[in-house]
TrEMBL record:
It comes from the Eukaryota. SUPFAM superfamilies: Serine protease inhibitors (SSF57567). Residues 16-56, 76-116, 138-178 form the EGF-like domain. GO terms for molecular function: serine-type endopeptidase inhibitor activity. This is TIL domain-containing protein. The keyword Disulfide bond applies. Gene3D superfamilies: Laminin (2.10.25.10). Transmembrane segments: none annotated. Keywords: Disulfide bond, Protease inhibitor, Serine protease inhibitor. The keyword Endoplasmic reticulum does not apply.
């Protein structure tokens, strides 16, 4: 059973197969639209565009696109998953249009309200402060020199997790990096 057409407003008509790309004041002319039926609803008559829920003539549309900030562009079909420093661009995202608005240009991500190159995003994990005679390394040794193994024990040359490691010429003893001659087993204190 087909329900009677809804009461449509001025310059509208009821259609059983609605367009997924009904023209609006923000849409660009000749924008490609998939030939797929949307739900039955009221659509603007040919020659009219939708603006704030009403069908008006294109010349009645408010002024052009808003001014966007640096590295932004106005888009009529905004992404619901705009890339940010915390959520980079290659994340999974539902391909669905959000409202027209300014979004970051390709190659830029939003950070603190501004669009910046992804390379300028702050590091998610700031490097920790290391103790004296240590340095932070991204590729740590799995066999750091100790008082028991001053030249490092035999092990596979493979990167360990990022961490603070003894500077060259120091060995780890009881959690601290000391010169080898201060090791208790070598005759130090």
């Amino acid at each position: 059973m087909i329900c009677p057409p809804a009461l449509c407003g001025p310059n509208e008509r009821f259609v059983n197969c609605s367009s997924l790309c009904e023209p609006t004041c923000q849409s660009k002319p000749n924008q490609p639209c998939p030939p797929v039926c949307g739900p039955p609803k009221c659509e603007c008559l040919p020659g009219y565009v939708r603006d704030q829920g009403k069908c008006i003539l294109p010349e009645q549309c408010p002024s052009a696109d808003p001014t966007c900030g640096p590295n932004e562009e106005f888009v009529t079909c905004s992404s619901k998953c705009e890339p940010t420093c915390e959520s980079p661009p290659n994340q999974l995202c539902i391909l669905e249009c959000g409202p027209p608005k300014c979004q970051c240009r390709p190659g830029f991500v939003r950070h603190q309200g501004r669009c910046i190159p992804h390379s300028q995003c702050p590091s998610a994990d700031p490097k920790p402060t290391c103790d004296p005679n240590e340095r932070f390394v991204e590729c740590s040794s799995l066999c750091e020199p100790t008082c028991e193994w001053p030249t490092g024990q035999p092990c596979v040359k493979k990167c360990g997790p990022p961490k603070c490691e003894c500077l060259p010429g120091f060995v780890r003893d009881q959690g601290k990096c000391i010169p080898p001659d201060q090791c208790p087993s070598i005759g130090g204190s």
